[in-house]
Design brief:
The chain is α/β, with parallel strands linked by helices. 38% of the residues lie in helices and 24% in strands. Strands 6-5-4-9-12-14-15 form a 7-stranded parallel beta sheet, with helices on both faces. Strands 1-3-2 form a 3-stranded antiparallel beta sheet. α6 links the parallel β4 and β5. α1 packs across α3, α5 crosses α6 and α8 packs parallel to α9. It is globular. 37% of the residues are buried.
């Protein structure tokens, strides 16, 4: 097994369990404890973990983009429920924008039966997913490809999105908070998402229940900028009250 592959598997474990132990990883991967410590050194250097005595813990405040395969495994059942709900919101002939979130990939997989859609996206994974769909216009934003993210970022990506006027836009976030609004890990991601917000007539925030009450480093927008919140389970009364006050429709799985 290559060192990079092993580190990726360790990163999956630390996101699942919030911590890892050196001697346990050594036995599991059949390598020396010193090799595991070097792996953890690299993950700490990259901002993903904080080393502790005998192991490492997840760096919850990291602004580093996670590899796509790790994001993909976070609450897939919730993301599928959201995709099912959003499929009902998209009509034949719509011009839509999908961000580079893993939730948006679930959406893309779920709407292939639609006809004559135009899809604008900065997601490489969505471009691949929709590459065999007939009768659609698929528009890639261009921009800088960031290693491991399967996403295009930067000024070119944002400018490309700003040149269109879509019917509906669907974006996700790392956290949604009553006061701080929708937030994400870093400015690279936020700049593109803010372009998405300004380039569509109706804005949908697709956020599974694990995102509620969390705040990430960079602010995307206040809740008042969102028209519809789509989630996998009914939010509590305080959230529903806020949505009603702001005129936000909330769609959730029963």
């Amino acid at each position: 097994m290559l060192a990079a592959e092993r580190r990726n598997l360790i990163l999956e474990k630390v996101h699942e369990k919030k911590k890892v132990i050196v001697n346990e990883l050594s036995r599991e991967f059949d390598v020396s404890e010193e090799t595991i410590r070097r792996d953890l050194d690299k993950l700490e250097e990259d901002g993903h973990v904080t080393k502790s005595y005998g192991g490492a813990v997840l760096n919850e405040k990291s602004s580093i983009d996670l590899p796509f395969n790790i994001r993909w495994k976070s609450n897939p059942s919730g993301k599928q429920k959201i995709a099912d709900l959003i499929s009902n919101e998209i009509e034949d002939g719509d011009h839509i924008i999908l961000d580079a979130s893993t939730t948006a990939v679930f959406i893309a997989k779920n709407i292939k039966q639609k006809r004559h859609l135009t899809v604008i996206t900065n997601s490489i994974e969505i471009l691949l997913e929709l590459s065999d769909v007939q009768g659609w216009d698929i528009i890639a934003t261009g921009g800088l490809l960031k290693s491991g993210t399967m996403s295009l970022f930067g000024k070119k990506a944002a400018d490309s999105i700003n040149s269109y006027n879509a019917d509906k836009a669907f974006f996700s976030c790392k956290g949604i908070d009553l006061e701080k609004g929708a937030t994400d890990r870093n400015d690279d991601s936020v700049v593109v998402k803010q372009s998405i917000l300004s380039s569509a007539g109706k804005i949908y925030l697709a956020a599974d229940s694990t995102k509620f009450g969390k705040v990430a480093f960079s602010k995307i927008c206040s809740l008042s900028k969102v028209d519809v919140v789509v989630t996998d389970k009914k939010p509590d009364a305080e959230w529903m009250k806020t949505f009603k006050e702001l005129g936000i429709e909330c769609i959730y799985a029963e």
